[in-house]
Amino acid sequence: MFQGSLEDDPPQDTKPAPNIPLQTGDLNAIAYGWLDSHTILYSSGKKGNQMQELHSWNMKTNKKRVFFQNEASISDVKISPSKSFVLVKLSSSKKKAIIEILDHTGKSVYSAAIPSTELTYEWNPYSDGVLFISGFNENWTYSSYAADVTRKKMDKVPFPQPFAQWSSKDELLYLDWDKKNPGQTAPLMKRNFTSGKTETVMLDIGYFKKWSKGLMTIAASSESPDKADYIFYNNKGKALSSMSMPLLKTFSDWVIPKMDVIGKTTELITFRPERGGDGSGADKHFSLVSFNWKTGKEEELLKHQSNEPLSCSPNGQWCLYGTQLENIVNMKTNKSYKLFSRKRG
After folding, report:
1. Which three-class secondary structure state does DSSP give residue 30?
2. Poorest-confidence range of 169-183, 241-255, 267-281?
3. Sheet of 297-305: strands edge to edge?
């Protein structure tokens, strides 16, 4: 990604941009996302490359503080949609994972040990402090759990698939992959957590993303095998708009571009492949684009990028980007900066 000069004048409402890059003294620092529209949560190493501290940094005031410390190393972090809670996964044994749930100040409010070698988790945007968790064993069998942070409770629950996204306070959406003969698409299903009632929502879906105000699905275009149709729906299931993108495929799967939805807006930030077909060797062949599903307007932001994770501030003024979210993009000027640097002296 093009790295802009730090002398570029930022818009008035995003000052003080000259604070970028953040001087951490640790070029191995990892960013995890936004605590609010101005504050970034990141980790830095204290024992070799072991990440044992979380820090918050307010871009507007340039204030930094220690957010969380632990003797165990930090292996992953996920901020809740409301920004009220932060899940921290701590490295432990190969058969057990430890999660710490922090409030918005960094205080631990709940912790749990889950039998697993790997974990996936999904915050509920409709019920603050509720999580859907799947823990995988070494043989990739799994168990699923529902955790309620505010009630300090976690229950093991039966669920047909390990990856799911909340569609309401009590319902989850998931792709019902055929475990014996997995394909590139599957039916999109909805299951009520309380009653267990399950219904088919759509067929032949390759990917979906659910957020509090809507739903997006990705399916192969009926008009061209090298195209993918992105369709946006409101919470009542009404199609609002769509866009088409080149479809990249590997031998067994699709290459799904990384993406993020900006706060409570109607804007998706994602990567548009510059071509369709074979998805191998597609590095630096994407354009960063924004798509407003209310107006149908698409805007190209940056060319010749890699398909890497995104995390945008709630107000949409900045987006973190990169394998460790190590770059930051000013969304008004489309200029990109390195987020971290060593301290001087």
Report:
1. strand
2. 267-281
3. 259-261, 267-273, 286-292, 297-305
